[in-house]
## 1
Amino acid sequence: MLSRERLRESAETLLREFPERYATSGIERFVASDRQRRESVTRLEAKRRRRNELAVGRGRPDAETVAEMKGLKEEVRALEEEVESRELELAEIERGIPNVPHESVPRGKDDSANRLERTWGEPRRFEFAPLPHWDLGPALGILDFERAAKLAGARFTVLRGAGARLSRALGAFMLDLHTREHGYEEVLPPALTNAESLFGTGQLPKFEDDLFKTREGLYLISTSETPVTNLHRDEILRAESLPVRYTAMTSCFRSEAGAAGRDTRGMIRQHQFDKVELVTFSTPEESYALLEQLTRHAEEVLRRLELPYRVVTLSTGDLGFSAAKTYDLEVWLPGLNEYKEISSCSNFEDFQARRASIRFRRAEGEKPEYVHTLNGSGLAIGRTLVAVLENYQRADGSVEIPAALRPYFGADEIRPR
């Protein structure tokens, strides 16, 4: 979250400069509630001072003084309750106010204002009409949407045979690249997490409808960003240990509550999917250079698989709640004839660290500071599988396996069963 001091100083500016982000955020309620709380605190302090003055008076208090002290006691108690109530109200409002966009983020009301940064690779020209993966996969016998619907309903897929092997190969390939060449430490966190962790990364309380909650009060993770970032919740890291980098491959679960009618066919938008995540903890002065590095690490997966893609910077109106800046990587899908997001790489600055109390100390005896947190998909495995199928399909219905993936997959093609 944002510091109260920053909100107090910049609320009006944020509302004026970023109405697309703050008009319905509750920032105006914050200004009013903060003013009322400070007025209550001022009155409370004045009453306490008067009470103390009377308490240290010499001699036996007269009846008038006793009556005043009794009245002050009741007023102080009432004002303490009022201040506590205002504090709770402020804390609730603060939880719903999004992060401040970095100065380099393009301004605009929605994704139409996103800025194209670069493209890589040329989309392949087919001598036949390329199939979308929801036709190609079943024809190969590797994607089974009908049985998945029988098992769990819509937005699920059963991967079979070479499809399951391809998914496993992609995950191993990504993890090896990030651990052996990019310097990340691999972790395998729980797939369930508590509310404190979800609050720390910003999924709660604002996005609870997107989560699956158990009867015991735990939540299925929507991204491994949540448990991995919270590995250091309530900790103080050593400055010399930064940056700290983790990667994790987990299943992710999303209710897609706000996605009715979007990408209903195939594997693009699923309730359950696997993803490799990249998480970095950084000093404030290094975080934007590390955002560029983390983004390049995610891009390297696409380059080695020789999948055409582009990188866009999200505008202020399209930026996620917790992020200060985000790059989206969008891969070319010839069967759909469009680019689709396959990774989001974000710098959250100290927004998550304040919520999760993740700090570092520059030197012994110095006051701890909040770290900056960054994360990105490196990559979403299901969408990468879709990209491989659609970009490497052949006229006879078979699919070539990218050269970099063959040692993991164990073959150079997938043929219809």
## 2
Amino acid sequence: MTSTASHPPAPAAASRPSAPPAVAVHNVHKAFRLPHQQYHTLKERVLHPFRSSTFDVLQAVDDVSFEIAEGEFFGIVGRNGSGKSTLLKCLAGIYDIDAGDLHVRGRLSPFIELGVGFNMDLTARDNVMINAIMLGLTRQQARARFDDIIAFAELEDFLDLKLKNYSSGMAVRLAFSVAIQVDAEVLLIDEVLAVGDAAFQDKCFKEFHRLKDEGRTILFVTHDMGAVQRFCDRAILIEKGRMVDLGDPATIARRYFELNFGHTVHRVAEERGGDRAAEIRDAWFESPGGERISEMAHGELCRVCMEVRFDEPIEDPVFGFTLRNDVGATIFAATTDLVHGPTGTFAAGETVVVRLEFRNWMVRSTYTVTPSIARAGVGADALDLRPDLAELVVHGGFFTGGVTNLPHAFEVSRA
């Protein structure tokens, strides 16, 4: 399979394998348009023909390049919304790319939406035959492999039960069992085993090893860093559609944890980033009485505040706070778009104070706050961000080894 769009010549990768790669991704871009105003019926479109047609652009995949050797077990990791599943769907041919080149050498089997072709009103017996043929097997091959498919799924006692009466786990087991019977050289696997029980997941991972031993190439999307280090030869880390790093699984897992636990709620390109249409002038912690504080006891009510001046008119800006501990791990983050909703329209020259109130269940340590403000929209790029602008020392409470000490109670009862 080859997908091509015109683009500037790609620079040569430093570590490309000498043999032709099984998968080659060069400078791939994929974006989605998200309209501000959506029509749900033809009547709405007729009654309101002049409504705004503006939209946000979500750059789901942004200039991603890598190559995968034949027989390699390759991990693709990233946080929710990072673009890794979109990239896999581009490779599978589900999405067309906007620019760049994709090359897959050999037959490809996507484990992305297992069971998409299942008919819930048919029995497992009928669905196995239909799906096996849809995935490329002949009728004779499907009949010959039928018993192996059912045995792997461990569903011998449910053959004549309609799929609408299956649990989600049973349906995934059946779909996976059918999919692995396809004679494909390249497998795309996108967290499809999340609902399977532990024993079945382990059974599937053993199957992955068998497929790898047969020389199959496997692309594996997951949040499980243990699985990445256990199975993958190499991996890439993706964030906001861009490739952050490519390397050995241990390095990528470490970068993934750094990204998750040291990340602020808005994205910036510089230490103090943003287009500066608004400026964060100050930030501080305060008591419920409104007094600025630099220390407080565990369990007390706390406020974190920022003062913002607008240098141009801004509509519904998103205010955010990120609290980090003394080792730089993010322990709490909040934005107004998740809780408060629209914040209003602010004129140039206007100054506002934003306060966030919470009960301080943090363990004794030193904490900093990073205030940020961003434009409304899916990108949430910062207008301004001030890393670690204010500091708070928390004392008291029990030290448990965790980052918080939440109110709790134990109950012990005899069975």
## 3
Amino acid sequence: MDPSRLTSHRFPRRVGRGSHAAQPRRAARLRRRSKLALAGALAVLSLLVAAGPAGALSSESAFLIDGHGWGHGIGMSQWGAYGYAKHGWAYKAILKHYYTGISFGDAANIDIRVRLRSGLSAVKVSCPSAFTATGTGTPLEIPAGATATTTYVDGSYRVVAGSVRQDFSSPVTFSPGSGVLRVLTATDLGDTGPFRGVIRVVRSGGSLMMINSVPLESYLRGSVPHEVSPSWPAEALKAAACAARAFALGSRKPSQSWDVYCDVRSQAYVGIGIEDPRTDAAVKATEGVVPVYDGTPILAVYFSCSGGHTESIEDGWPGASPIPYLKGVDDPYDTYGSLHDWGPLRRTAAQIGGPLEAKGSLRAVYTVKRGSSPRIVKAALIGSGGVKFMDGNELRMKLGLNSTWAVFTSMSISPAPSDHASISPGGSLTLTGRIYPALAPGATVKLVFSYDGTWRSRSVTTTRASENLGGGYKATYSEYSEGISPEQATKYYFSSGKAHTPTITVAVQ
């Protein structure tokens, strides 16, 4: 029998479903169906991932900070005083504006002891003329132009000046025979040079401290031109001189060896090197005039510029008690200051949340208490991991802000850029976010997008919502949500005024 016929007979072309000859074709069809099913499942999965099932997608915020003023905001605004002087105010009227309810008294030209520097192993001074070192025992006469070096050796103050040497059992005071002493050891401000008065060397905390004891009016000559520009109007300089005089008098510490620092911890003081005829004239014109309250020199704190309103001391400094003359007041002429307004500053959540040690990813810096001015007294740091509170001064220092008068706006977007969101062709995705603080009811934000280098936008209506922060505080914010169906890779962000979210890219694949 012909084998081909046998084969043809046994395996006809038209066979039933169960025949072995049908298996290869059936398997191919099943593979095609499986591929289609898998593609569909992947598409659905892609949409599910892009659409963000609960907890699957993250949110990221961007921050905008606007602010006003420079400094702590308590007492007299130096630029505000400048503005009042430019508008014809006399110095006493300027002082009465910033220090509520004060009057004026007379102050004697007593000595102010300025701590120039501590933590020293040696102190060096000189003088163009002969000068003297005194302590216990016989004074030591030092030749003109010699450098006197003081150290502490075996329980004594040792002064060496060339071939001259003497030990003293008590602190040493250097006095000029004529002229002024020259300080050769740099002060806390980094200054050397001539200083009026005497230089005293005392042992403190295991090292030496250098102190300049100088008459009050001479002290002002070396301080006022560092605190304000000598080019300012005369009445502003006089106001500054009187405030500095009151501050120095109020800082005296009879039970200690010194009264004030030479740097901004008290008032910057540089000695003769910074003196100027214009500020000298202001000091002379107001000699002995001191602002007082109930007959006592006031705590005449001051700062650079206010932003338009000063602050009450109890709101500006945590833990401070109210003081009648340190109340927040309007400051209409402070606009002359270059930092009357500052910002906007743009920061990422990491740039702010890191220094502030926020709980999780930072979503908002929400002010829960402001002072008599709009300065921040207390803020809530709202993070993905919880809320913590911080006072305004700590917030300012950790972020390096010019003042606590700051307004934080944060806007978030979800998915976040790190989610690398994508959809399949024909798919859709919903973008969501929040803006702190809340916008007006019914306000809109813009969804801004680009797929070809040209940016377009459309308005999105917001809704207001709130959350409990703990401690009896609540935060109000606005939510926004918008569906998108891009046909190609597109960039998106939400914006409101100058604020905007991070930018995300949604891929189509």
